[in-house]
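Lab notebook, bench 4. The sequencing result for the construct came back, and we need a structural model before the next group meeting so we can plan mutations. Quick request posted to the team channel:

Model the 3D structure of this chain.
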Amino acid sequence: MLTSLYTAITGMNANGTWLSVIGDNVANMNTAGFKASRVAFGDVLAGVVGSLQVGRGVLISDISPLFTQGSFETTANGLDLSIDGDSFFMVSDAGARYYTRAGQFSIDKDGYIVNPDGLILQGYLADTSGNITGTLGDLQIAVRQSLARATTLASVSLNLDATGAIQTSAFTLDGNGDGTDNDPLNYNFSNTITVYDSQGGAHQVTMYFAKTADNTWDVHYVHPDPATPSVLVDSGTQALTFDTNGALINDNSGTTISLDFGGSVTTPQDISFDYGTGTAEAGDGLDGTTQFASNYGVMHLSQDGYPAGNLDNMMISENGIITGIFTNGQTRAIGQIALGKFIAPDRLAKLGRNLYSESFDSGQPIVGMADTSGLGRVLSNSLELSNVDLAEEFVKMISAQRGFQANSRIITTTDELLQELVNLKR
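Done. Here's the predicted structure in token form:
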């Protein structure tokens, strides 16, 4: 009879623990990335009374998290991240690695992507050219810069008026005859393009188009002398030839123009000026520069150089690639978020603060790039909500409460039976 007291106590203890788990789930219903836990009960080894087996109560055999997918909430922060799939973000604290589903990240004063506790998000680093490497480390983005690129190619599409007069005198920079090269003369049309040196400095290069004969033009490339800006320098000449239909025959773009922008940068700087694909290059001569009897006009003007730039904004793709948008208009990859996946995620050790750590029972993580090898995809401007089902938790709470009450009633009933037994002596 006394064993029923101890059996009831195990029931009260088990249901009390179950209520604690339920309370923890309900308390974290608004915690981003939280995973609800569930309780597994098991009976205590039964005692043997003659040929009968009598149970000795109940115990908690396991408390494990449920890693079902939570709902998503859209946010305005690009560093709010969620995972659609079975994976974890990896964060580091002084070299110690932890795992989390909570994706509330921000940038700290040193430019690292960190969670609210200052743990650094881990990912694959990118080189200065934007190539993702296989090196796994701390993702740092705010200090990134886009290096300058010197102009090596300029593309020009325009129409040169076929009715323009042939220049009988040679092109000159000393048009006023004062001995200073600052007054170009003897040309038909001009246009200016901005090019960049090896340090990202901008330079204005003016193209002077001079008609030298029927269907033949010379292009002179003029820019200020770096030592004396008031003096102009003619850095080279390029010949353009057209057929009688106004189509480009040859632009001689294989000949580069060497420009001198001063001793502090790469000098000379060779730039190729491409005016289109002429018939001599197996083209139709109409995809770029033409010579028709219509007004001079520029259709297209571009070059491949740009200045240095600082990180201005960024975007994160579903495969976790962080693309930086820089003030010079360039974009490039600056890192890729790495994810970890476990064969037995419910065996991870819970550390609090939405963190988990690897355990012997969970096995080692499978680390890789998002949206590959069964890893989840990363959603930016999104947070994964708790997977706690409040209605289900309330039903469990009622069951736990009734179970606790029933076991306490067994103790009361056993006490009454013992009291009757004592009263038999009277």
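The mean pLDDT is 93.
Will bring this to the meeting.
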